[in-house]
Amino acid sequence: MAVARLRIVLMGYKLSGKSSAGNTILGREEFDLKRSAQCVRRHGEVADRHITVIEAPGWWINEPVAFSPELLKQEIVLSVSLCPPGPHAVLLIIPVETRFKDYLRKALQGHQDLLGERVWSHTIVLFTHGDSLLDTSIEQHIESEGQDLQRLLDKCGNRYHVLNNQNRSDHTQIEELLEKIEETVAQNNGCHFEIDRKILQRINNKRRAKERMQQERVHIRSQTSECVSFHCFVSITILYRCIRTNINGIFSTNTYYSANLDFLRWTPIQIQLSRRVISTDFREHYKNQLC
């Protein structure tokens, strides 16, 4: 089933070679090899197809999804919305030289599950650094890695492909990958992957809640700064007046301290009004008595 416009999402842990895989697929340097905390989208024309590639940010290789930052999980979920109406395939990137253990399978599966159970019917495992296999076939490699890798492959219908990032001139490997993606589309009745709206809604609610919290923090900080700066200003003003008048008498009656405590209980409106009054009075007093 030929698809003229293909949409692909790259998933994987940090240093798995997602950016290199994206560059190999598009046939040129489109993705920065430096790590990014946000999704990156690039386009290109490959084998008579218009290709959109989204690179989702990665997690640490041994990091369970429960310990991943909330922002990272949100970016992973939002990656599928950057290629509307949805990706035709999600490529789960695994370097072929990786010693596959149970903790790695759980981390990969946990982060992939953020997109919902249906994503597995659109997932293809993409083994990168295929040159590391040397004379070993990919089937032999999978068998040698044991049950953990096979369990992951079973999860995505045993769909996988090998990519040699060092040999970008070999266009055959990319054409075969695109054909496998088209086969995946055909297996899904010609449909792309569409994330459950409830998952997106939950992520959007979390983002809005975080934005509200940040706005509240900024508001509280500005009010706190206003009160502190005004408190310091009033303290200096009162101290100045104490020095200009009868310092012993005023301090003995605790005027300085009680005045400061009263100011701390003032509302922001009182502070604004009082600042204008005291500032004007202070300038006049300073001009008349010191100039």
Automatic annotation (TrEMBL):
Protein name (database record): AIG1-type G domain-containing protein
Database matches in InterPro entries: G_AIG1, GIMA/IAN/Toc, P-loop_NTPase
Record family assignment: Belongs to the TRAFAC class TrmE-Era-EngA-EngB-Septin-like GTPase superfamily. AIG1/Toc34/Toc159-like paraseptin GTPase family. IAN subfamily.
A Gene Ontology molecular function term of the record: GTP binding
Keywords tagged on the record: GTP-binding, Nucleotide-binding
Domain AIG1-type G: 3-202
UniProt superkingdom: Eukaryota
